[in-house]
Every structure is written in C-alpha cells, then in structure tokens.
Amino acid sequence: MMNRDQILATLRERILAFATSRVSRDRAEDLTQDVMAVLYEKYSQVTELVELVPLAFQVLRYKMLDAHRKAFRRGEYNQESVEDLPLADARDDPATQLDQKQRVDRLLVAMAQLGERCRKLFKWKLEGKSFPEIQQLMRQTSINTIYTWDLRCRRELLTLMGGSWE
User: Fold this and answer.
1) Pick from 66, 52, 67, 65: which is nearest to 15 by CA?
2) Where are the domains of the chain?
3) pLDDT of 1 over the 70 cut
4) Fold of 103-160
5) More confidently predicted of 73 and 118
6) Could you tell me if 156 and 112 are in contact, meaning their C-beta atoms sit under 8 angstroms apart?
7) Which string of b and e fits 67-96 if b means at least 16 CB within 10 Å?
8) What is the pTM (predicted TM-score) of this model?
9) What is the predicted pLDDT for the residue at 92?
10) Alpha helix (H) ranges present in the chain?
11) pLDDT band at 121 (very low <50, low <70, confident <90, very high)
C-alpha cells in the first residue's frame, strides 16, 4: 500500500495533466502547486485515495474558476498583444497633406502679388519681430501706422487667397 506522499506525487501528475488540458502549461503548473499546497496545509488528515482524488479535483475546479473570474474581472480575455497592434502613423493622411500643400501654394501665389511693404511686414513678423521693432525697421514715427499697415496687408492677403484661409 502507498503512503500519503506517494499518493500525492501520483495525484500531482493527474492534476497537472487535467489542468494542462484546460489552460496553458504555465498556468496549469501554478494551479497544481496551489492545489497541492491546499491539500498539504488544510487537508493533511485525508489519507485515503478514494477521498483524496475527488477532494483534489474539487479544489482544482475551484482554483480554476477563481483564476477565470479574476482574469475576466481584470479584462485579460479581451486584451490584444501590443506586438499585434499596428503602429500609429505620425504623418497626416494623404487628403490632409494635399489640402495643406494646396493652401501653402495659394499662400505663396498670394504673397507674390502683395506689395513690397506688406511682404517686408510679413517677413519681419514671421521672424518674430515685435511691432515696435518693425516700427524702427520701417522708420515710422507712429506705431499705429504699423498696426494699420498690418491690418490692411492681412485683408489684402485674405482677398488674394479667395476670402478664406482654408
């Protein structure tokens, strides 16, 4: 007749085989270890094979259900592998790129039609110069003159672009 340790060693193999048929090998190993720990710690008084086998498989079913509920609660069943997901393209889609290119082309054509004063004013603004700096560059005594020219140049540019920046 086999002693309790021999019975548990044989039982461990059967539990692992059953668990492996239901879950991955790694998870089955973990479940088997959990079942064996419960049998050693809580059911050390059970020594008969006819009692130990059903008890071990009942504990295994509970452990598997618990693992299933925990995985479901954590959302692990619906997760996709990061490696399977496509990388996001940082560039704009072709329609947006075409739209932007057409706007830039219209802007360049409109800028070429502006007078010298407006082109210089826009150039200095794009360089980051402030209105007082532009006032000095244009040798004007009043900053309000620069504000007025800026307003008129922007209106003219908008008109040349067809009345819309888009």
Assistant:
1) 52
2) 4-76, 103-160
3) no
4) Arc Repressor Mutant, subunit A (1.10.10)
5) 118
6) no
7) beeeeeeeeeeeeeeeeeeeeeeeeeeeee
8) 0.45
9) 74
10) 4-22, 25-42, 49-74, 94-113, 116-126, 131-137, 143-160
11) very high
